[in-house]
Amino acid sequence: MNRYLFDLTGKVAIVTGAARGIGKVLARELAAVGTKVVVADINVEGSENTVQMIRDAGGQAIAIPTDVRDRQECDRLIEQTVAEYHQLDIMLCNAGIDILKPAIALEEFEWDNIINTNLKGYFQCAQLAARQMIQQGTGGSIIMNSSIGGVVGIAESAAYTASKGGVNLLVQSLALEWADRNIRVNAFSPGYIDNIMEGTENFRRPPKEDQEHLNAVIPMKRRGKPEELVGPAIFLASEAASYVTGAILMVDGGYSAM
Ligand SMILES: NC(=O)c1ccc[n+]([C@@H]2O[C@H](COP(=O)([O-])OP(=O)(O)OC[C@H]3O[C@@H](n4cnc5c(N)ncnc54)[C@H](O)[C@@H]3O)[C@@H](O)[C@H]2O)c1
Fold first, then answer.
1. Domains, the chain, ranges and CATH?
2. Is the pTM above the cut of 0.85?
């Protein structure tokens, strides 16, 4: 396959939740292949660090502080992106949270927070990005970072799995609505990744026990690395995936194939 199929030079991408973790790695690598990156996160200091890292490596990036739960902030995110970079080609919805807790004890505000971040946040970023792409007349790629929790249950993660199951059907519905505008909507769906989500550290088993347990149940016998999500993201963003829409690409070491 020719290299140019994966070329993203000059494209403009928003990556939500790019102040740390998986989003930070994806932002860094999208910039490394020539994309102008907008880091959209509630963590302002972390966002500035991501931007600095990208600039130090010779890439282009800005930070636009954004709470994806807030409609007006999402509106402002698109407006400021276009004011700075004049277009929007790629929206990577990634900002997500989990609260590991037995469903029986989950508080209403915790449920709301997870759903508002992981599902409403993804929807409104996708919707506003699509409006911009339609106005530009250029098409575009909307990518959602889902989870194996969208296709299999995870104990003590009821709201999270509900949100990710919702994300998967959101991908399919939006893909159908926007296919004739050449806006492709897809997800990649990570399994257990070597980045513990913020706030969930204390709920896990001790690291060694956790790792041994996971190694036993993951067909590839290890967690994935955030870097192993870069290829799927670049593929879905680029012309290499020009006829791919409504797809959920599992990136889970075979976990969901069982
Ligand atoms: N880590 C994993 O094992 C794993 C597995 C499958 C899927 N995922 C998904 O990957 C995505 C990123 O996870 P991660 O592991 O990098 O988590 P993380 O906690 O390391 O990073 C999440 C980022 O999202 C930001 N964020 C949280 N709420 C926000 C909001 N309301 N508005 C804007 N930004 C907000 C945080 O500030 C943080 O920078 C999530 O959607 C998660 O569900 C992670």
1. 3-245 (3.40.50.720)
2. yes
